[in-house]
Amino acid sequence: MSQTFRRPEGGRIKRNKPVAFRFDGRALTGYEGDTLASALLANGVHLVGRSFKYHRPRGILTAGAEEPNALVTVSRDAARSTPNLRATQVEIYEGMTAESQNRWPSLAFDASAVNDLLSPIFVSGFYYKTFMWPAKFWTSVYEPRIRAAAGLGKAPELPDPDRYQSRFAHCDVLVIGAGPAGLAAALAAMESGARVILCDEQAEMGGSLLSDPDVTIEGQSGRQWSTDVIMALALSDRVTCLTRTTAFGYFADNFVALAERITDHMATPPASSPRERLWQVRAKQVVIATGALERPLVFPENDRPGILFADAARTYLNRYGVMAGRKTVVATACDSAYLAALDLHRAGVEVPAILDIRREGGALTAAARAAGIRVETGATVTGTRGRLRVASVEFGHVQADGSVRHDAVLPCDSLLMSGGWTPTLHMFSQSRGKLRYEEVTGRYLPGRSAEHERSAGACNGTMALGAVLDEGYAAGENAARAAGLATRGTKTFAVAGATTPDGQVLGALPHDRNPGRVKAFVDFQHDVTAKDIKLAVREGFRSIEHVKRYTTTGMATDQGKTSNMNALAIAAGALDKPIPAVGLTTFRMPYTPTTFGIFANTSRGDLFDPVRRTSTHDWAAAAGAEFENVGMWKRAWYFPRQGESMHAAVDRECRTVRAAVGIFDASTLGKIEVVGPDAAEFMHRIYVNPFLKLEVGRCRYGIMCRDDGFVYDDGVVGRIAADRFHVTTTTGGAPRVLSHMEDYLQTEWTDLKVWLTSTTEQWAVIAVQGPKAREAIAPLIEGIDLSKAAMPHMSVRMGTILGVPCRLFRMSFTGELGFEINVPAAYGKAIWEAVHARVVALGGCPYGTEAMHVLRAEKGYIIVGQDTDGTVTPDEAGVGWAVGKSKPDFVGKRGLARADLLKPGRTQLVGLATVDPKVVLEEGAQITPDADPAPRTHAIGHVTSAYHSAVLGRSIALAMVERGRSRLGETLHVPMPGGAIAVTVVDPVFYDKEGGRLDP
Amino acid sequence: MRFSFASLLRNAFSAHTGWPEQWRSPEPKAAYDVIIVGAGGHGLATAYYLAAEHGITNVAVVERGWLGGGNTGRNTTIIRSNYLWEESEALYDHALDLWQDLSQVLNYNVMYSPRGVMMLAHTVHDVQVSKRHVHANRLAGIQNEWLSPEEAKAFCPPLNISRDIRYPVMGAALQRKGGVARHDAVAWGYARAASALGVDIIQNCEVTAIRRGPDGAVTGIETTKGPIGAKKIGVVAAGHTSVVMGMAGLRMPLESYPLQALVSEPLKPVFPCVVMSNTIHAYISQSDKGDLVIGAGTDQYVSYSQTGGLHITTHTLDAICELFPMFRRVRMLRNWGGIVDVTPDRSPILAKTPVKGLFVNCGWGTGGFKATPGSGHVFAHTIARDEPHPKNAPFTLERFRDGRLIDEAAAAAVAH
Lengths: 1000, 416
Ligand SMILES: Cc1cc2nc3c(=O)[nH]c(=O)nc-3n(C[C@H](O)[C@H](O)[C@H](O)COP(=O)(O)OP(=O)(O)OC[C@H]3O[C@@H](n4cnc5c(N)ncnc54)[C@H](O)[C@@H]3O)c2cc1C
Fold this sequence. Notes:
Chain A: InterPro entries: 2Fe-2S-bd_N, BFD-like_2Fe2S-bd_dom_sf, FAD/NAD-bd_sf, FAD/NAD-binding_dom, GcvT/YgfZ/DmdA, GcvT/YgfZ_C, GcvT_C, GCVT_N. The structure holds 2 protein chains of 2 kinds. Chain A is an alpha+beta fold.
């Protein structure tokens, strides 16, 4: 039995290309061009899922993105499994495996279906009222069970091997949706010479025209017209046509995000192709042509498999050649369902009756009767029967008093319904446009725009095809004109054979059953019924946002596309208020669920965050360095020799620097060139230090505070010329220091003539430190007198090294004689290699950041961000001497004068010596006066830096301790899980207190 | 009517037609003893504790939208108390204590779920900072423990601890008592309990002015529903606090930023705990319904617009997919934003103000949901007694003038 519900001819599927696929293990066939839904229906399969809460059997309700029921997991292989896909959007390919979800042990027999029997208890919000006793059962019993029962599909278990890509695009006109309105708009824009992007979420453009066999446009069939237009657009090199592409997010300034699905429909995707592509489009003008979605009727048991939207059934018939059943009852409030009935009837499907809720029927009532179809007007469905598929429909007539008199039972195998059409306002609403409510038709429509966009066609409430085309064309023309192009004016399309789908009903339909007992579904996926919404209102939830959250209506994966308007009408009815007074919930990004991967895109592994490497990176890697991440930089951490531990390597590097000389890559330090006639004044204000009198050729260790008076950054600054400073910052602080400086320049001190340039990446910085540092570099340097007298500590000179221009700093972060050679980054590696050779010849070695940390800690030099944490003043950090006492003002001066910063008792930087010299403290450990602190004891400080010092043969530590400088010699304690460690408070300078080594 | 399984069952027999309103929706009276501006979780909790603990029931909570519709109903509900400074530890741990039996106290299941909050460290600096927290917390009697990458993975199996990723996980700090709760239930539970004690909750009523008497003390408010008198006013307006306080002539040390969050489609349980990474900006847990609930960062610019930029969401999903690469095929269902009120030291202000009778509770920024019960509790005390509770005494407005900051941002990047 294969495809018994497929008509022998018709539809747009490729009948010469059969496709084999599996659903829940069952082998089935369809044709190329089928969706999973159409192929399942062709095989007579209606039962495809279970609902979220009651696990009721569910079928395929729609033919598009709004599908709430037919959710499946499609897997290519173990890593490529995607849950929660809508069968109505999945295109089948040879060998596809699809599984239903949220059922056990099988779809036909689902144990959790008992929930349906318990539904009198499991009403909206029941979980807020129970599961509270006994209290600890929530975590141990109730919540785990609820969690296990909830959820839909399963997340893949393996990392996704597929790739995602991203493109930025600009255009004059972006047209969202390629139905008749969108095609006409794109056509008009193209004809004016605009650069156009046209996107549509479906595999084929054409929208509603694809399912309509009757209409003619400009004398051609509607399908032919759309084919021709699409061809013309595709041939234009100014138009980009994107199918399978959903506009899912609308952001400020006409920035629209599109998700293009590239390979999901392919049996064997080419390895070179990404799975999806993110388009980030900045459009001068946007035309929204997203159409309208049909609504269900809310009658008792409206959720059985075999019950479909009327227009969906028409689409299956005309586009896929598939009949939803052989005996199809139609219930409607809208003319469009008649079109489905007539098409089905023509195709030989038995249509026992059309039940039209409207007392007078509609425009096509007579035509249906003339075709021999029984039409009952003023009639409504009062219930349905059938376990896994609808088997019969009960109906009755609505009486003058609004009650319903039961009439008859109609046996059937399918039931179509239409409650009318809801304009698709998501994109408009996301653009922050204001919606307006149209009283007569009971619809929300686009109102005032907030962006350069306009809506056309059904999403704008225009339903008659001729008007849709005219409006679409006008919108495209208008958009092109607004984008600055000359256009040809508007156009009127000659249309025949189209029926305007008039008529609608909102909210629950009347019936003759016990209202407390029947289930008339509003939100199918979340099992929200009309009575749930009334319950919410009864319990005081009056705004639609409250109703939504309490009942969860509209919060399922379809985001209320089929349910919101009915829910709103029912809530408004229960509150006895007009619909606009109850409000509409906000439309949020994304329009339909969008893969995380398309956002994360190429940001994986090394591309997650750009890796910044210095010019010596490869050299260091070849030398066996281990690296650490510091901000975005990779820094050489230490250079272990064969078989050497980190500890041993760091000890060796430190000893070598102190005994001979070491070479260190300091290129990652931030560098800012501060230039201009007011440069010195600027430096004087932005740093706590005085800068006006710094001589050209001299350097100063600068401390920078924010206005709160706390240390923000530090670094050595050299004065290159009267109007030029070479500023260095911490590695991590470079960007924020630059913004901080710019902030002041641009907002506070607009009178200063100063320009800032980030030069971090322009200079490679090679630090040479140790007693033999001068000896190491002297033979390589030209044009600079390196003698002690000519180039004192903290000076900067311009010269060349091996012929390369350099800025040579004499400075030290180790306490030894030291130089930092700044050369253009492109020469960094060559110069490094030359200097390295010299260093090695003198018994030196390269050292990494860890040794650098130890060496500076031995000298009590702070690292901003490690020894300070944004709550420490310069004085507290031990660098109070840097503050220019006589300066009239500087950033942080008033902050430092605040009452609490002047109080005694604040923390100060000190050294700690463990009583046992072998014990190295843990950074971050707390400090107490007592060895055995009682719980909730106040900590008087914490350890900021702690290392083993090879040179000193003991551990050292820096700490911030309350009144630390007055405690020198005191014994304090560092409580650890295994007991406290006794420490003595000492001066933070552990090595060469007199500083003689700096300037030998 | 008390909520219980028994009452649920009883009502099932009457088709649930017997449930009363969970809270009354009265028209405002001419005057109240206390008016709370803002019916978020903090405002409603304040009103509840005023009535329940201080016997002050002539209270109105005035809300411009619908109760719980601000940040309370938009947040990712991470609850923890392992903050750095003693003042914060005490305040947040007070809240954590109250969370333990909040469902029973309010007779409303707020679904507090202590499933453990794990904060990842990716750099040497992160490790130093995390360990500082762990040590400080241990001393203060606050649960927090350090985990190796392997232990972190054992606690959260989907976590990628490969050394090859851009910022490998170097360890994590875990607070087992931390977790999540159901945000709406917190607002609704407090609203129902407060309303039952006589508090009037007045929704769709925007405060447009604060009235003051000749001595400068507050006398009431003006609203879109007319003037309402009050002896005391507590402003609990989160992202809009500066606007409301401006009505009393006070300039607040606050900046308001959009903060975004998103959820995935519902999945069968895959994610057992809460994971936070301040360094690469990812915050994730799985709701009882099955969605992955993901928090993003704030925009870089101040704004009152609740839509943040796409690049912020993107950046967060970069991080999520890096840490949990199997989630790349999972799909985003819904993305939204809220306006958070950020202080210079990233700690809240819960205090009296220079204006007599005017109190303020704000500055919770990206992380105030967790504090809801504690904040309401001590703020009610502050309003009722006209002096702070010891736990909120340090959280003054004057600290920004005097420099007695409680800087939680200092050591960590962002605090959720
Ligand atoms: C995306 C996001 C994620 C977050 N994640 C977390 C998290 O994981 N953990 C955590 O602890 N915290 C988190 N937070 C922060 C947390 O949500 C807030 O700190 C907390 O909920 C604030 O509660 P509230 O009651 O003070 O504010 P709100 O709930 O915002 O309430 C303030 C109320 O004041 C009302 N109001 C404003 N102006 C007026 C006026 N003029 N008149 C009348 N009423 C007015 C508003 O409408 C609003 O309802 C997050 C926040 C956001 C936005």
